[in-house]
Amino acid sequence: MTAPVRIGSYRIERLLGAGSFATVWLGHDPVLDSRVAIKVLAENWSHDLRVRERFLDEARLLRRLDHERVVRVHAVGELPDGRPYAVLAWADGGSLRDRLARGPLPVASAVDLLGEIAAGVAVLHRHGVVHRDLTPGNILFRSTPAGERVLVADLGLAKALAAASGLTARAGTPGYMAPEQDDPLAVVDTRADVFGLGRLGVTLLCAPAGRPGTPLRPRPGVPPAVTAVLRRATAPRPADRYPDAAAFRAALRAAATPSGPGAG
Length: 264
Description:
The chain is α+β, with helices and mostly antiparallel strands. The chain has six helices and ten strands; from the N terminus they run ββββαββααββββααα. Residues 164-168 and 260-264 have low confidence and may be disordered.
């Protein structure tokens, strides 16, 4: 893959990542003297109008949300060959996938991080959006003057709740995808994201497990109440899970907070 020299007014520094539908480049804004991430629709999908519209929908959705817990979009544009691109805030701290590759996080830090991720997903749910693809690669970190911020990214599979049920294409990542996402006739709502949050929790707080449905093996130091929250979040039936990300976060915080006589 040949790196472009420029995209729009941005000088391209290096490749950040490449997926099935898009490539992401690190660019430099000469006017503001700042770095940005530029997401470009992949060449092999440039003539597929549905994929093109999904790409633009993601940019519009991020722009509409405009929240500190969700990756912000600054602008959209079009390459000379007609492919659209979106200029996004650069997550200079990398992804959760990058961090997990270096080893497990301390239990307390992992619980706090899971709560921060849930807070970001709760923003989507308050706006009537289901992410549907919560994975370590879609959780990013960005440095701010107030400290590091956890961001939810890659809403390419997200759908407005009104459009997320009935005859939708199978979408999601095996291991994190709720069972109902494999059924084209099932209703996919906020509880699918609760499942994804639960599976992220399993990744962070449990010994490596097999497919969803296998018994959880929490790491030493994980409170039993937290394990119980993860178990409920990853229940096969949506009705048995927490209703949304805010409810999951509240349950997680209560489970992780010492209580009773002698609690410090």
